[in-house]
From TrEMBL:
Belongs to the 'phage' integrase family. The keyword Cell division does not apply. CDD domains: INT_ICEBs1_C_like (cd01189). This is Site-specific integrase. The keyword Nucleotide-binding does not apply. It comes from Aerococcus tenax. GO terms for biological process: DNA integration; DNA recombination. Keywords: DNA integration, DNA recombination, DNA-binding. One of its GO terms (molecular function) is DNA binding.
Amino acid sequence: MIKQYTNSKGTFWEVRHYLGKDSETNKDVRLSKRGFKTKKQAQDYLKQEQYKFDSGLSSPIDKNLTVNQLYQEWLEQYRLDVEESTLRNTETYFKLHILPAFGDIKINQLKTSTIQKEVNVWYRKFQKHRKIFNYLKRLLNYGINMRYLTVNPCDTVIIPKKKLSYNCPTRDRDFYTKEELSMIMLALEEKAPLKWLCFFRLLAYAGLRRGEALGLQWQDISFKECTISVKRALKRRKQGLYIGATKNKPSVRTIDIDQETLAILKKWRTSQQEYFLKLGYNILDSKTFLFRKEKKNFPISDSSPRNFFFKFCQKNGLPYVNIHGFRHTHCSLLFEAGVSMNDVKDRLGHGDIQTTMNVYAHVTPTARKEASQRFAKFMEIR
């Protein structure tokens, strides 16, 4: 199958095709590759690979390929489908964790037992041990798609389920319940600077991505219409931070906000103006960023929210989720409030409904319980 797809970098073509059964292993061999600029390129690639397979010209295993070599090849494919910030994060996981452990090992010599030992080390050291493992598994799946491997040794690795205790209280999920969020917001109101109350209020009550919130200018806030217009985002690449387009086309959106959030925004705007006037800056310009630097009209670092919030939770004994967890919380609680799937998708600017459905699969315990009760009540015979 050859089909077209679109992401933030443009429109491309992908190949997904069943080649046949491997003559040595009798296993199904499937072809999967993305990033072709034209349909003809995709067709030519498919014809070439099918011919090589039918003619027995390609071996299912490249015995000389190391994990690092496979990674370099996979990375060129991966960069076609993701944002620069996502690419940088992925490269970091590989350079810090995966390549030091497995980089020099030939992929056909990589054993499940070897991976299991390293996964256990990751588990004891890192909160995101599962994410590190998933990147390794994804890399080796690419090796299977390219016919360098016949099986993925990650398939039978056991991921420890019991949560370890870290320095900061954590959740067994990446979002807050309604009660937990209320507790967090109350603590922010009472103990945090107004800037951070405003920032986390936008994440929790408008469902903004971190980069979207940091990319907001005062011209994007309509105090009359009670809306926020999301038009840009703060992003990161190797050269540093920059203002760019949102993650995808649906992410450009206008969001209704509640009166209390609006009141906090008004209070923050006044406070910000007064502060900068004392420093000799006139920031009445509508293009002023909500969360700007002191000496330059450019957003604060994208790492600042995490640094503040982690220390804030640690100091006050509060449960911690990562910054993206606030967006996940907003999505989950929208479902709990009875908002439809499509309305949630539009509000959060998801690129496709599958992303929204993935969050729905992890809705709060309250929502799951209410769903079962509603169904039972619906089925009652009167």
